[in-house]
Amino acid sequence: MGEFDRIARYFARPASEQRKRLGGSAAFLGIGDDCALIGQSLAVSSDMLIAGRHFHRDADPESIGHKALAVNLSDLAAMGAQARAFSLSIALDTQQDEAWLEAFSRGLFSLANSHACELIGGDTTAGPLCLSFTVIGEVPFELALRRDAAQPGDQVWVSGELGGAAFALKYPGQCVQAEERLHWPEPRLELGMALRGISACAMDLSDGLLGDICHILERSRVGVVLFADQIPLHPALVSCSESERLSLALQGGDDYELLFTARAQARPQIEELADRFGLSLRCIGEITADNRRQLLDARGLALDMVFRGYEHFAP
What we know:
Elements: H1 3-10, H2 17-21, E1 27-29, E2 36-38, E3 42-50, H3 61-78, E4 82-92, H4 98-114, E5 118-126, E6 130-138, E7 155-159, H5 164-170, H6 176-183, H7 189-194, E8 201-204, H8 209-220, E9 223-227, H9 242-251, E10 258-262, H10 267-277, E11 281-288, E12 293-296
Parallel strand pairs: 4-5, 9-12
Antiparallel strand pairs: 1-2, 2-3, 3-6, 4-6, 7-10, 7-11, 8-10, 9-11
């Protein structure tokens, strides 16, 4: 049973009878998206990072502090939310001495301060190194970017360049720029907020584009055609074979860019955003009504790549 099957079976619950009598679920949008939407405008997301799985135990603690918060803020970006606050619960073992904590907190608060996002609480305990975040943002409910809002005819867009982090994981130390993408990702919060009213559907890329886009397709009950020659590749991938380039860019994960859809007439607005932020925004495909999932080469021929990304519970 995969990660998302486990969530659906054991943790997704309809509103209780008591909750229904009191006016329904506490959340306008609950399990299944990047954040839950609570009340009129709160976007809330929780995430856990474990040493040895989400980051190397011997990684620079300053980069751990940055990345741990960045990947959580990326969930707010995917909803078009403005970051407001976060809590942090952390388990520390004997290797995390004062020097480690000093560097970790420096990376953490440098990013938090740049987005005016305040630490409001949490917990500490002894144990194997584990970081658990809850981030809180604000977004008008009617403008929130959701996974279930893609429509046939929408264009599919992605920010930035893909595959750099996956390259750094596979070939450590071979490309400084790729190492930066892996250890110092930038949450696209400004872009997410700017997409309000331009896009209705978005998510962040954490487990690989071909796997992550399936969440949009399933929630929106649509299909997609993606064009392999339009995928924006990280420069580090130039040293790889063509098949490896696509595999790293589309199935590798850890990119934390935004994948979003928009009507064709929104292209001029999206291109203006690319100029405003100095950020690549590339149209890479189209949403279809037939529920098919296709990846085509430059000749229009189907490529044999599985729509699957990183899977936490894979054997």
